[in-house]
Amino acid sequence: MQRVLLIGDGARENAFASALSYLRLYALSSFINPGIKKIVDSSGGKYYIGDINSQEFVKKVKDDVNPDFAIIGPEDPLFHGISDVFYQEGIPVIGASSKNSMIEKSKTWMRQLMWKYGIPGRLRFKAFSSIEDAAKFIMEYGGSVAVKPSEQVGGKGVKVVADLQAYLSQEKRLALSKSVDKIGELVSDKVKVIVEERVDGPEYTQHVLTDGQSYLPLPLAQDYKHAYQDGIGPETGGMGSISGPSSLLPFITEEEYEDTFDIVRQTAKAVERETGEKYKGFISGQMMLTDLWGPTVIEYYSRMGDPETSAIIPRIKNFGEVLIRAAEGHLNKVKPEVVETSSVVWVVSPLGYPLDRTIARGKRIFVDVKKIEDFGCQVFFGSTSLEGGQIITQGSRALELVALGDYNEAVKKLERCVSFVGSETRLIYRTDIGKSIDDMIEKAEIIRYSYKKRKSKGTLGISADWSPNGGMW
């Protein structure tokens, strides 16, 4: 039986573990994830607790386990070179190298790369080394912009202001400069602020798995980032997701899927040319369908997204085999067996998330897994620790409930299953996820008409105030 070492402690890693449950599973986490622990124990493996970002500690665990291959779930271990520990010793691993993970770590590097290699779906941008310079630019510029920290800060700090009415522009610019000040609280002095042109449209994620030779696109998913019903409130790591019923989403066409896959594949190859290292693992495009380009890149992940992973893995019968083949360098020898039905994910979080994680931490949560499964849902545990036989929240998203079926059917299952989750604190979840699919289809049709017209005129990617200066204003 093959031995696999899984690194990470969230719902994404619980989903990975479920796909690999027929192997001997070893896990390394910051705390004991109840879902991962159950699979590790049943497979005859071992659970290790420690710093998943420490190369020294990971080396000790690796030597103890002697795995046939490893999987790294979160982005931080990739940024800290944990995948390099395995690459250096010739152990197969699914995880981008530290150099290649720069595609996620630095938005400035990512934008520069896309413009350097002329990759479609790129946005104009300007990077600043000081908050003051960024604010000055925003107040002087007359267009609509998105303001972000250049480096990865866990999804925090994105602010979008549309300057749609010229006579209100001064007030809006001043408001936007305040949002830049807020971002300054999230990042260090060395991290640049990036100002991008603003676009609008339905979002979706394209995950691509590569062994350095072959590229395998997975079914699309959509992530719901805002904390509260109907897409309001602060941004989070994701409060739910949908996928299906095919490899597409109801509002994305086959042509758009192929164009998106080509964008992500081109980007992976451009990363290889820049770093001199083969890109191995996941590269995932957080996309938006816009009237500027059609498929447009908002950002990249150097791993699978969470909660998108929970929506995708249950739809692929042989996902474990797909991972094994990718690790071995034989991805071309496997074809995903995709279940032709939809999936819906609802994330359950403790009160306090995402604004005050101290409030959300240290609370008991009660989950009747058997009843949830009896009613046709799956549970993937996230930021929860098994302590003395109790499940304790760690301050972030506690668990993810997944249901398969057409969208209406899946939502009805989740409405029943969520009642089997309780806590000594208030729990927050969105019941609108998986609904309003027709609204997204209608919005996509309007945008599709616009970008197709641009395409016929040869003006894709060209804004009214466009400047060809390397993608920068």
From TrEMBL:
The keyword tRNA-binding does not apply. The keyword Ligase applies. Its EC number is 6.3.4.13. SUPFAM superfamilies: Glutathione synthetase ATP-binding domain-like, PreATP-grasp domain, Rudiment single hybrid motif. Keywords: ATP-binding, Ligase, Nucleotide-binding, Purine biosynthesis. GO terms for molecular function: ATP binding; metal ion binding; phosphoribosylamine-glycine ligase activity. InterPro entries: ATP-grasp, ATP_grasp_subdomain_1, PreATP-grasp_dom_sf, PRibGlycinamid_synth_ATP-grasp, PRibGlycinamide_synth, PRibGlycinamide_synth_C-dom, PRibGlycinamide_synth_C_sf, PRibGlycinamide_synth_N. Pathway: Purine metabolism; IMP biosynthesis via de novo pathway; N(1)-(5-phospho-D-ribosyl)glycinamide from 5-phospho-alpha-D-ribose 1-diphosphate: step 2/2. One of its GO terms (biological process) is purine nucleobase biosynthetic process. Residues 111-328 form the ATP-grasp domain. It comes from the Archaea. Belongs to the GARS family. This is phosphoribosylamine--glycine ligase. It comes from Candidatus Acidianus copahuensis.
